[in-house]
Write a structure and sequence with these properties.
nine-stranded mixed β-sheet, globular, alpha+beta
């Protein structure tokens, strides 16, 4: 991967890891290919299965995002994680961030990489809400911790605020037509989003909440409120 991409806005290393934020408009065509290859390898490692996240698919995911977050490890001497962020307005003065993808290599488990990322994202962008579509218990816990409210766990999408979050997700094309058709605003579940279980992560007490069926590819739309 090109040195200039990996050193743009690189933060000071904390312990042995550092998160880097890159605007997608700053990524050159050659850098995009290198980054797509790296992201595909991280996805296969992190999910514990062949995600078929080929270069073209990864490139589309990157280019549809506003910000790419890259996890560097001085110990591993390579990229060990990524997250893709998309920005939208929830209200004229409020920001919604859609966390469209997040994944770490298994060597990063237990190092609080996600928690450090959320702290940086909130400090940098000051979002009112961060949303994600996921069936991964770790991501559910990550987004719901330290939030004022977390849909659908402490509030549901039938409320005025919940409905406005869904409206923003739809208006910005973060949800597909299939997502919309299969979405239950009371449980926050999108039925059969992935068609199968998406990773080898362990089961937790959240697994059976609201009839989520991971083996059928169900996903939550989780939205956490960080400011009113």
């Amino acid at each position: 991967m090109k040195t200039n991409l990996l050193t743009k806005s690189l933060p000071e290393v904390s312990e042995d890891i550092a998160w880097q934020f890159i605007n997608t408009t700053d990524i050159s065509p050659n850098e995009l290919i290198d980054l797509a290859i790296s992201i595909g390898k991280i996805a296969d490692d992190g999910f514990g299965m062949d995600m078929d996240f080929d270069v073209d698919h990864a490139k589309v995911s990157i280019l549809s995002s506003d910000v790419v977050c890259l996890l560097h490890s001085s110990k591993e001497k390579k990229l060990c994680g990524f997250a893709l962020l998309r920005m939208a307005k929830l209200q004229p003065s409020k920001t919604l961030i859609y966390l469209s993808k997040i994944c770490f290599c298994k060597t990063m488990i237990g190092k609080k990489c996600g928690k450090k990322l959320m702290t940086l994202v909130i400090d940098r962008f000051n979002p009112a809400v961060i949303s994600a579509m996921t069936q991964n218990p770790a991501v559910l816990h990550l987004l719901s911790s330290n939030a004022l409210l977390s849909f659908p766990f402490t509030a549901d999408y039938t409320s005025k605020l919940g409905a406005s979050i869904v409206d923003s997700m739809i208006a910005n094309d973060f949800m597909s037509l299939a997502d919309i058709a299969n979405f239950d605003d009371l449980t926050g579940i999108i039925k059969n989003k992935y068609g199968h279980r998406l990773g080898d992560y362990p089961s937790t007490d959240i697994d059976e909440y609201n009839t989520l069926n991971r083996d059928n590819g169900d996903s939550y739309l989780i939205s956490s409120l960080y400011q009113i």
